[in-house]
Amino acid sequence: MKIAHVVSYFQPEFGYEEFYSAREQAALGHEVHVITSDRIFPFNNVEKMLSDIGSEHSGRSRGVGVSEVEGVVVHRLKTRYEILYDLIRYDDIVSELASISPDVVHAHIPWAYGSRESARAKARLGYSLIIDEHGYSTTYDQKRTFRNWLLDKEYRFLRAPRARYALGKADGVVAVSEETEAFLREFYGQKKIDMIPLGVDHKRFRPDPEARERVRSELGIGDGLLLITAGRLDRAKRIGSLIKAVGKMGSTDVKMLVVGRGDDQYLDELKAMAGDNVIFQGFKTPEELSGLYNAADIGLWGKASITIREAMGCGLPIVLLDHPDMRSLLRWDNGLAVKDDPECIAGAVMGMDEDVRRHMGAKGRMVVESELSVNVQARRLLKVYSRVSLK
User: Fold this and answer.
1) Contact (Cβ atoms closer than 8 angstroms) between residue 147 and residue 193
2) Same structural domain for residues 230 and 353?
3) Does 233 lie in the same domain as 333?
4) Whole-model pTM?
5) Among 7, 216, 240, 379, which lies 20 to 30 A Cα-Cα from 176?
6) φ/ψ bin of 54: left (φ > 0), alpha (ψ from -120 to 50), beta (otherwise)
7) Which of 306, 255, 304 has its CA nearest to residue 281?
8) 286-336, pLDDT tens digit by residue?
9) Is residue 254 part of a domain?
10) Residues 237 and 247 occupy one common structural domain
11) CA dist., res. 90 & res. 276, Å (int)
């Protein structure tokens, strides 16, 4: 099968679903292309992130042209303009699709420019169109602030009309979580949706006893309990509650790693409330992150994130703040859901003895291998592609 992924930003050095899906599909013997802009996503502190992972690039620009990354042909096109953070328009998508002549186009994010262009050219070029959605909020259900009100209006009046056009032309729609599926049904009225969870690079994120010993030695951590949270650091992640919980555990042998970057002001607030037993690690490569997960004993998260599944891949038991989109990650007896309260979090963590942690960690690894790996995700997407192509 000849497959073209169309996505606004493509950054293999950081992973993400659009890279893993394309890579695994190519490994399964398909001809896979990615059509994208000549920039990577406008992460906050992107220059520092690139420096942290030792990238050859110092900024977002990647240049125009065709290259190959792990069996995937990447077509980078010239950016015409970029507004409102991540609304980007880039040239020649349709002509690039015409030259590739794909059987299936998988466009990422309904409101993206590439999704609209893919929908516009579908009938003329004769391919099947799949559109996926990664988000599930327009901010209308978040805290009522003037900023969120503006973001909600911007989504409803600018992004949503584009999304409705693209979704109306799609042969298949994919959601990456139960919450995303509910959002597509309730906000956009979509009826036929395939829910395919984000996959974990199960070969990279795996149990590694040697890495555990090495990383704990490098961190100067002996036999004490080591906790970890990882991902983009923003207020919605409730990291403050997790840090406060460490102070309630009543032991100097408990330490916590906070891995990732984000809003500098929020990071300063977190550091101000943290004691000496909280260690901020900054942004890490996937390989470094795997080592840190292996070094840890329990993972803590305040909001759903792909990093939770990555930690599960390393055999790490997890403690999550109790919320519908978090409970769905705990249905395999691989962790605990707790109230968003430092005392409750501390009690749950200290109540998990070594046998419980080992049992929950093994369950997490097992489900990653059987249900949540990038290979399983790629195969499930291929089944969707085949089904819509037969219509």
Assistant:
1) no
2) yes
3) yes
4) 0.86
5) 240
6) left
7) 255
8) 899 999 999 999 999 998 888 999 999 999 999 999 877 678 889 999 999
9) yes
10) yes
11) 47
What's the pLDDT at 141? Answer: 66
Burial 302-318 (b: 16+ CB within 10 A, else e): bbbbbbbbbbbbbbbbb
Structure-block tokens of residue 363: 């369950």
CATH of the domain at 347: 3.40.50.2000
Does 34 share its domain with 159? yes
In a domain, 204, yes or no: no
Instruction: Encode pLDDT of 128-149 as tens digits.
Output: 999 999 887 777 667 788 888 9
How many domains is the chain partitioned into structurally?
A: 2
pLDDT at 9 over 90: yes
In this structure, are 194 and 313 located in the same domain? Answer: no
Instruction: Summarize the confidence of residues 242-249 as an average pLDDT.
Output: 92
Provide the token pair at 340. 């968003």
Residue linked to tokens 């219509």: 391
Q: Is the pLDDT of residue 233 over 80?
A: yes
Q: Give Cβ neighbours of residue 180 (< 8 Å, ≥ 6 apart).
A: 133, 134, 135, 136, 195
pLDDT class of 168 with cuts at 50, 70, 90: very high
Query: Please, what is the average pLDDT of the chain?
Result: 92
Q: For residue 171, what are the domain limits?
A: 2-199+373-389
Q: Domain check: are 379 and 269 in the same one? A: no
N-term to C-term CA, the chain: 16
Angle 306-313/354-367 helices, nearest 10 degrees? 110
Q: Is there a single domain that holds both residue 262 and residue 186? A: no
Domain contains 285: yes
Q: Give me the pLDDT at residue 391, please.
A: 63
